[in-house]
Design brief:
This protein has 105 residues and is an alpha+beta fold. The protein is built from 2 helices and 9 strands. The radius of gyration is 13 Å and the shape is globular.
């Protein structure tokens, strides 16, 4: 339903050592140059409408509304010439912006 690359797991693990919250939250918000944007935050609690995914020692939360947009997607962490960033490969997106942070359906 949702997957993380080894690079994403490694980077989330590195960042989580500095955070006080237990969960890495992925959500979809309205906005961005393509209509929807991905949001990545840390959170200390699970909400009623959250789905919990576990990858090794990493726990990911995605709310059910966002999960509808993210079904079949994979989160990767990319380190290339334009910088370091999380990138979502989303089979549901009809187009994405150049930086990969927003998409349209």
């Amino acid at each position: 339903m949702f997957d993380l690359s080894k690079n994403a797991i490694k980077r989330i693990r590195e960042i989580s050592l500095k955070q006080k919250q237990k969960y890495f939250r992925i959500s979809v918000d309205g906005g961005g140059c393509q209509g929807f944007s991905y949001k990545f935050t840390f959170d200390g609690k699970i909400n009623k409408d959250d789905k919990l995914f576990e990858f090794s020692d990493i726990q990911i939360l995605i709310d059910l509304t966002s999960l509808n947009f993210l079904k079949g997607s994979q989160l990767d962490f990319v380190d290339d010439m334009i910088g370091s960033y999380f990138k979502v490969t989303n089979p549901n997106a009809s187009s994405t912006c150049g930086c990969g942070t927003s998409f349209s359906l």
